[in-house]
Every structure is written in structure tokens, then in C-alpha cells.
Design brief:
Blueprint (H helix, E strand, L loop, with lengths): L16 H27 L2 H23 L2 H24 L2 H23 L4 H8 L4 E3 L5 E5 L7 H4 L2 H7 L3 E4 L6 H10 L4 E6 L1 H14 L2 E6 L5 H5 L7 H4 L1 H4 L1 E11 L2 E3 L2 E5 H6 L8 H13 L10 E2 L5 E2 L4 E6 L3 E2 L6 E2 L8 E6 L4 H12 L9 E6 L1 E4 L4 E6 L2 E6 L2 E15 L15 H11 L3
Parallel strand pairs: 2-3, 2-4, 4-5, 5-19
Antiparallel strand pairs: 1-6, 6-7, 6-19, 8-11, 8-17, 9-10, 11-14, 12-13, 14-15, 16-19, 17-18
Helix pairs in contact: 1-4, 1-16, 2-3, 2-15, 8-9
């Protein structure tokens, strides 16, 4: 078997033992120093600090009021949020020492962000070595094809003239036309002898072509010509370098990754049920995501909202029917938004990632909306999360699902299954790693790992 590939321009050496121990000590001292700095700063201005916290809480509550109500309720929420924000600015401006304290805290947080990945061996070099450990170098296929959606991503493929670029590299370009069936196009290309098949388009299109590639045992190439390209991000591709991704056809590395299935439909990223799935069903969602969220939230999470009837069994065996939002992913996410925005450290663990936000009161709704808006959905106290090879959601009749961003309706129950190693995927030798493969959050597990490194264990 050929030797494992290494990422171009990236070495495979690990940080030295003493270097990692010193970095671990620095990372552990950073949160301690943050607490000390905050405690000293608050010692002389407790009332001011409490006033600032109170204003933040008022602004958050007002934002929730504005997002989940209409008419006078929304107007009152906006006005209150503006007043609370203005008050917070006045407090900060009149107590300039607080700005210095904030800067000190941010610097200490940055120290943790730099030192912790080095200490735990999650630098770009170490992460790249792990990502390529199971990959093998491959040369050009004797025959390959690229399906191109010219309309995806606001016309990315057309702007980069991917059809001409494919021909220049000896790849058959297949331009998607209105009414074409992606599955049939992929099957036809393989019937004509394609050993590698690529898709230039969004994640929903990637999933369809990957379905055929997996079934026919040919390699798949992802060209990030869609809008968000989450799949490309987790493969380590530069989502802004559309032409660079084409190198996977001619001089890349190949590895096996997982797919996932919801009943009879394969997906590469995630399936959202409940609130987010209903938003995705809106015709206006693709062109105006934030405006669509704002318009629909009162009907979905407001006091007069109809209950979202989703039921599933939690890991402890209990039955849950109070989660208005459920996210099932192909391998666990490092979650920032319950709408599915986040990255995965790996796509080859053979498991699904399951997240469910349980809401029992208006206060829970407020917390969920606030944390979702600031990209901290993973900290919602009512969040259940676990990994499993299978998962089932029960409901009545058809269930709305956002599958890799595509709006679908599927008959309940929905049975989700991981498909380990189902897809051979090719990426350029220059591909990096997903952001989650390098990030180290300030969690109990990571702090415990840093303690062990610092102690030389």
C-alpha cells in the first residue's frame, strides 16, 4: 500500500514534550488569571458591574420579545433593546477602566486559544498529520466527470468557467439543465466509464452525487461552488478556492469517510427537524435567511405558537417530546448554531451526532434565541447531545426536514443511520483540516487534558 500522504507544505513533526508542557501551563494559567483580573476589577465597582450585567440581561430579554412577537410587542422589544444598549455604552464610556479590564481578559483568552492547541497536539501540523493518516496519494483517473450547477452559489461555477477548466484537465463537464435529475446524470457518467465523479454545487447536490458514487464504488470530488459549502469546509478545502479544488481530479489524496441516511435519503452534513426545518421550507429562506428567521419566529417560538410534535428516546431511556428543534448530523459537530452552523473534527467515526433543544418555558425560549444569535447554542442548558450509530424520531404523518439545507417532507418515523466508510472522497494534496480539528474549547475535559500534559502524564 502506498505511504500515507502528507499535506503540501506541512510537516509531520509534533511539538516537543517540554514545549507542550510549558504551553499547557500557560493555557491553564490563562483562565485563572481571567478570574483574578475580573475579581480585582469588580472589587471597587460592584454596583457598576451589576448594572452592566443587568443591562445586558434586559437587552437579551428585549431581543427575545422583538423576535417572538409582532406589532406593539415587537416595537416595545426593539425600543427596550436600544435603550439597554445605549445605557451599557454610557456605563462603559464613563468607567473607562472597565475597557482596560475587558482588553486584558481578551488577551488572556487569546493566550489560551494559542497555547492550548499546541499543548494538546492540535496545531495545524499535528491536525494535518492526523487528517491524512488514512489517505493515499492518487494520480489522474483514466476517465472522470464533473457535474456543474451554474446557478448554485450565485453563479460561482459560471464565474470561474468550470466547464472550460474541466475540459482543460481532461474531465468531462456535465452542465446541469432545468429539469435534469442529478442521480441519473451521475449514473450515466459512471456508465460511460467515469472512475471519479465530482459535483460543483451546494451540499444538497453533493449528497445526491455522493449517493451514486458510494453505491457504484467510485471516488467523489467536492467542488465548493455552493453558498455555504459546509461539506467542503469539513473536508479541509478552501471554500474560496474553487479552481484549486479541481486539483483533486489530477493530483490528490483519497480517503474513506462516512455518509448518513434519513429513511431512504443520504446526507453528508445534517438533518434539521422542528423550528429550523419549518424556516427552510419557506420560499424566501434562500435569498433572505435572517429576514425569514425574524418574520417566522413569532409563529414558531412565540406564546401563541403551535406545539412541534417530535418524540424520541434519550440515551437514558426517557421519552422526550418537548424539543422544538432536533439536529442529526453525519458525525458529531462542534456546534455553534442549532441551524447547523459548525464544523466536525472527523467524518469517519461511524456515528451520528444528535442535538435536541428542550424548551419548557418562555425563559427557555429567551435563552435559546439569545445563545443562537451569538453563536453559543451549544451552551443552552436544555440541550441534549450525544453520539450514536442510529437514532429515531417519531411523529404523526409527514415531518418537515431540512436535509443539507434542502427542504423536504418525509413520512414518520424518521430513522437515521450512520453509513461508516461509505464514500471514497478525493481532495487536493494542499487541503487542510476542518476548524474543529484545531480548536480547543475551555471545557472540563480539555482543562483536564491540559493538567495531564502539564504534569507530564
Amino acid at each position: 500500500m502506498p505511504a500515507p500522504a502528507t499535506t503540501a507544505g506541512v510537516g509531520t513533526h509534533e511539538p516537543t514534550t517540554w514545549g507542550r508542557r510549558l504551553a499547557a501551563v500557560a493555557a491553564l494559567l490563562a483562565p485563572v488569571a481571567m478570574v483574578v483580573v475580573a475579581a480585582v476589577a469588580l472589587a471597587g465597582d460592584v454596583l457598576i458591574a451589576l448594572a452592566a450585567v443587568a443591562l445586558v440581561l434586559v437587552a437579551v430579554a428585549a431581543d427575545w420579545l422583538a423576535l417572538t412577537h409582532r406589532g406593539r410587542g415587537r416595537a416595545a422589544g426593539v425600543a427596550l433593546a436600544l435603550l439597554a444598549t445605549a445605557g451599557l455604552i454610557v456605563v462603559v464610556a464613563t468607567h473607562w477602566q472597565g475597557v482596560l479590564v475587558l482588553l486584558a481578559l481578551l488577551l488572556l483568552l487569546a493566550l489560551f486559544g494559542v497555547a492550548a492547541p499546541y499543548a494538546l497536539g492540535r496545531t495545524g501540523q499535528a491536525s494535518a498529520a492526523r487528517a491524512t493518516a488514512g489517505a493515499r496519494p492518487v494520480g489522474p483517473a483514466r476517465s472522470s466527470a464533473l457535474i456543474i450547477n451554474l446557478k448554485s452559489g450565485g453563479g460561482k461555477a459560471e464565474r470561474h468557467d468550470l466547464a472550460a477548466e474541466a475540459r482543460r484537465r481532461g474531465i468531462e463537464p456535465i452542465v446541469l439543465q432545468p429539469g435534469d435529475d442529478l442521480l441519473e446524470l451521475a449514473e450515466g457518467a459512471i456508465d460511460r466509464g467515469a472512475e471519479v465523479i465530482g459535483m460543483a454545487g451546494g451540499d444538497g447536490s453533493q449528497a445526491l452525487v455522493a449517493t451514486v458514487a458510494s453505491r457504484r464504488d467510485v471516488a467523489h470530488v467536492c467542488i465548493p461552488a455552493g453558498t455555504r459549502n459546509h461539506f467542503a469546509l469539513d473536508l479541509g478545502l478552501d471554500r474560496d478556492d474553487v479552481l484549486g479544488a479541481m486539483d483533486a481530479f489530477t493530483d490528490g489524496v483519497e480517503r474513506c469517510i462516512d455518509l448518513a441516511r434519513a429513511n431512504d435519503r443520504v446526507f453528508v452534513n445534517n438533518a434539521s427537524l422542528g423550528v429550523y426545518a419549518k424556516v427552510v421550507q419557506s420560499d424566501a429562506y434562500r435569498d433572505a435567511k435572517l429576514e425569514t428567521w425574524t418574520r417566522m419566529l413569532p409563529d414558531l417560538l412565540g406564546p401563541d405558537a403551535d406545539p412541534i410534535k417530535l418524540e424520541f428516546t434519550a440515551p437514558d431511556g426517557s421519552i422526550c417530546d418537548d424539543a422544538p428543534l432536533v439536529l442529526v448530523s453525519n458525525n458529531p459537530y462542534q456546534l455553534t448554531h442549532l441551524a447547523g452552523a459548525g464544523t466536525r473534527e472527523r467524518i469517519d467515526t461511524g456515528t451520528l451526532g444528535v442535538f435536541a433543544a428542550r424548551v419548557r418555558s418562555g425563559a427557555d425560549v429567551s435563552k435559546l434565541v439569545a445563545l443562537e444569535l451569538v453563536g453559543q447554542a451549544g451552551r443552552f442548558p436544555g440541550l441534549l447531545s450525544w453520539a450514536a450509530p442510529e437514532f429515531e424520531v417519531r411523529s404523526e404523518g409527514l415531518v418537515e426536514v431540512g436535509l443539507d439545507g434542502e427542504a423536504l417532507r418525509r413520512q414518520a418515523p424518521l430513522r437515521f443511520t450512520s453509513l461508516p466508510g461509505a464514500l471514497r472522497v478525493r481532495v487536493p494534496r494542499s487541503a487542510g483540516v476542518a476548524p474543529a480539528a484545531r480548536a480547543v474549547a475551555m471545557t472540563r475535559d480539555n482543562l483536564g487534558a491540559l493538567v495531564r500534559v502539564a504534569a507530564g502524564r
